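Blackboard transcription, Thursday session:
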Amino acid sequence: DAKTTQPNSMESNEEEPVHLPCNHSTISGTDYIHWYRQLPSQGPEYVIHGLTSNVNNRMASLAIAEDRKSSTLILHRATLRDAAVYYCILSLIQGAQKLVFGQGTRLTINP
Amino acid sequence: GAVVSQHPSWVICKSGTSVKIECRSLDFQATTMFWYRQFPKQSLMLMATSNEGSKATYEQGVEKDKFLINHASLTLSTLTVTSAHPEDSSFYICSAMPGDRVNTEAFFGQGTRLTVV
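(Written on the board underneath:)
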């Protein structure tokens, strides 16, 4: 199974952009890159996902390297509510498309 | 957006008893649901894949006789922790994806905190 590597923690200031990196050097050609985040004592929440092209939605942007071996989740203007653990996950296309979580990055936002 | 609901949100039970946790997809049908367990300060660990109308698929190291999964309808999966012990105390989370889409987002329940005393 292709795995992802993320920094354990990151810190940023409110209203500043945040770039959360993820390495996935063993990604296969059919793996999608998903990002989820988890606030304390809650289930994970979908953020964004993509395959090859960069993606934007109301929550964030996803920049995918040309060789797809890494990606970056971009929060354009962080708020205190963005403080969470962010997980970069490669979807395993094995019929059920299960998501296997790594350790994630704990993002702290300073006021 | 689509909602997955878990019940109960928290439960305290005595050691040796069984506890059932429900996971419902409220506005879509899900032929497959997933069950995770999360210990404090740790990531989610996938326990099993719940398949509607057939047996669940368990991850390596997860005891299928201890964690009984039933997926009797397209909107409901249940996880029963049998003969619970204090080491089973954890945060249990389910997820589901709409069955008619491929590589879309997964929707997670709010989680169930189980405390075994």
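Lecturer's comment: The beta strands of chain A are 9-13, 18-23, 33-38, 45-50, 55-56, 61-64, 70-75, 84-90, 105-110.
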